Fold this sequence. Notes:
By secondary structure, the chain is of the alpha/beta class. The protein is built from 12 helices and 15 strands.
Amino acid sequence: MAYKVPFVNYPLQYQNLKSEIDRTVKKIFESGNLILRQDVEDFEHAFAAVLGVKYALGLSSGTDALIIALKAAGIGAGDEVITVSHTFVASIAAIVHCGAVPVLIDVKEDDFTMDMEKIEEVITSKTKAIIPVHYNGRSCEMDTLMKIAEKYNVAIIEDTAQSVGATFKKRSVGSFGTASTYSFYPAKILGCYGDGGALATNDRTIYEKAKLLRNHGQRSKTDIVCYGFTGRLDNLQAAILNVKMKYLPQWIERRREIARVYDDGLREVKEVRLPPRPDSDERYYDVFQNYVLKAQKRDELAHCLKENGVEILIKDPVANHQQKGLGLHHFCLPVSERLAREVISLPMYPELTDEQVDCVICNVRTFYASS
Ligand SMILES: Cc1ncc(COP(=O)(O)O)c(C=O)c1O
């Protein structure tokens, strides 16, 4: 079924950028510049400048970026790493792939980001890092976190996969910690045509280690200094990101505008709890990777919206610590468990028309008015 309001619309974004993208792809194919070439370097300089950090490194995905960041920060077997359960599973998987132990804590009810008050309850002498996840386009509360990091001397690896361009107290998320990681999965605010990711840091040692890890530990063919990965961002994807990056500010502003319209249209609906409205707290500049509601009768609402041509997503229907295959059942995290039952993501991308946004609002309102 073709939705009136699809959840993502990759072809439409491509149509808007067609001539630039086509020219870029043709240039790359004709030149044969495919692996670790100039476009990757150009991307890294431009991306570091956008974030206001010293170094950025193009990597193969957001998940690989997390693994490489943790390893570059020296995290390994037996170490404990604190993160949240209410995140994409990759934030937790990366810890396990490093041989470390994930220690999961809950998120806050109001904005679904890490509850900083829970950290000291679980910190031990084995805690070596914390992964705050800037979720749905909103920064974590970084003041408290950075104080804790200093007090206990732990690394902070910011999972910024969903929040490129967001700020906390006017400073880019991803510029606070030891390192930060990004995903350019197509649905992301800045997405490529396949998988891609990045790491950013102000620490030269972390940068150098990560650079080795992304390319099999090779300084040269005769100088392999550690075991690494095929962790590189393709030159083709870097060139595409270089085209797209200049549109980032206007895409983010359009997302924020749509968030305001959703807020205006749905604020009165008492059965839903909306995310914080843009500018409702001057410390946060949210970029709305996702527009996520807490909704009563969530599953019925989802069904009704789909029936009426509005494609929605239930991103986290089972809390990660309650997933069967992950061995994390020993955690008890009431907020994350409740969110798994209550949250629903409405369509959110810059190409949505005003009519489509109104259509979503109208359908949510009608559902609750008639149920
Ligand atoms: C919060 C978070 N962390 C990590 C990732 C992993 O990124 P990737 O899919 O590029 O590996 C994602 C991707 O959706 C994410 O949302």
